[in-house]
Amino acid sequence: MKLSTRGRYGVRALLDLALHQGEGLILLKDIARRQEVSLPYLEHLITPLIAAGLVKSTRGARGGVLLLKPPSEIKLSEVVQLLEGSIAPTDCVNNPDTCHRSDFCATRDIWIDMKKAMIQVLDGMTLQDLADRQREKVQPEKEMYHI
Amino acid sequence: MKLSTRGRYGVRALLDLALHQGEGLILLKDIARRQEVSLPYLEHLITPLIAAGLVKSTRGARGGVLLLKPPSEIKLSEVVQLLEGSIAPTDCVNNPDTCHRSDFCATRDIWIDMKKAMIQVLDGMTLQDLADRQREKVQPEKEMYHI
DNA sequence: TACTAAGTTGATTATTTTTGTCAACAATTA
DNA sequence: TAATTGTTGACAAAAATAATCAACTTAGTA
């Protein structure tokens, strides 16, 4: 039941962008450095976010990326599902046809409930909320991590 | 965020035992057949359940396994965590020391909330509840799956 | 006692997923 | 035109997962 680095790093990257909201284009290189993620890997994580319209990218010198929507309008449920695919604990939750037992499987109901509970948590948190929390946490001497 | 087969098959195996509660020793071979799991693999899944005292096993001819506690006293949270290990979405949830960012990481709070939500669902469901649900579901012509 | 049935354990292997790296490419700016 | 920056796809290393196999132990029974 672990989240992969895609989800973890991806959310951190977007949180980084939310923290720098309004500062214009942000370099992937800088996000990679602050969030301690390899640049080539981050490039792959940012791609689906661009495709989904959450992030806008500009190539070339003076290029970079920025959030296309206000952080308050980006829910973590959207982000995590974009990066991880469905967070259903089993395939049968999304598609009963993946298991011929689905019709009469009691355990499937539980996995469905688990997915709902997870989505509910992530639905209740936006990038803005996350950025606010982050600003509360960071002590001055640790500021390097979000500059 | 997928459950592994350990969790899925293991819960099914225990559900099978709950459905046959009171019938004495049940053969692993029969559980494997009904739950469509390979016997050698099931043997490995049952081991930690025996070690944890949920299941009692008897070797030799006329041997088999059975639930040591009433199904109503076995919560799915216990079972899943036994089989899957912690269901925390990240390692840092259980042990902040696995990541040096834990102290000032806002995303970690989210993963903690997710774990709590998942546990809550699994805490609210016992093997007895599951068995009751299963009995409601199974139509006569599908009975083969729990005999 | 010998034989068979059943669970136990550890070694090993196959497969899949994850986590990246690398290089060629495209677009933009100075 | 040169430098910078994001884009894409191919590829590979590493780890986790999902088994399988074989030797072993225990218990019942003829």
Summarize the structure in words.
The structure is a homodimer of 147-residue chains. With 147 residues, chain A is mostly helical. The first copy, chain A, folds into two domains: 1-74 and 127-147, Winged helix-like DNA-binding domain superfamily/Winged helix DNA-binding domain (Arc Repressor Mutant, subunit A, Orthogonal Bundle), CATH 1.10.10; 75-125. Chain A is built from seven helices and two strands; from the N terminus they run H-H-H-E-E-H-H-H-H. The first copy, chain A, has helices at residues 5-19, 28-35, 39-51, 76-84, 91-94, 106-123, 127-137; strands spanning 55-58, 64-67. In chain A, strands 1-2 form a two-stranded antiparallel sheet. In chain A, helix 1 packs across helix 2 (28-35), helix 1 (5-19) crosses helix 4 and helix 1 (5-19) packs across helix 7 (127-137). At the A-B interface, helix 1, helix 6 and helix 7 of A face helix 1, helix 6 and helix 7 of B. The structure holds a DNA duplex (30 and 30 nucleotides).
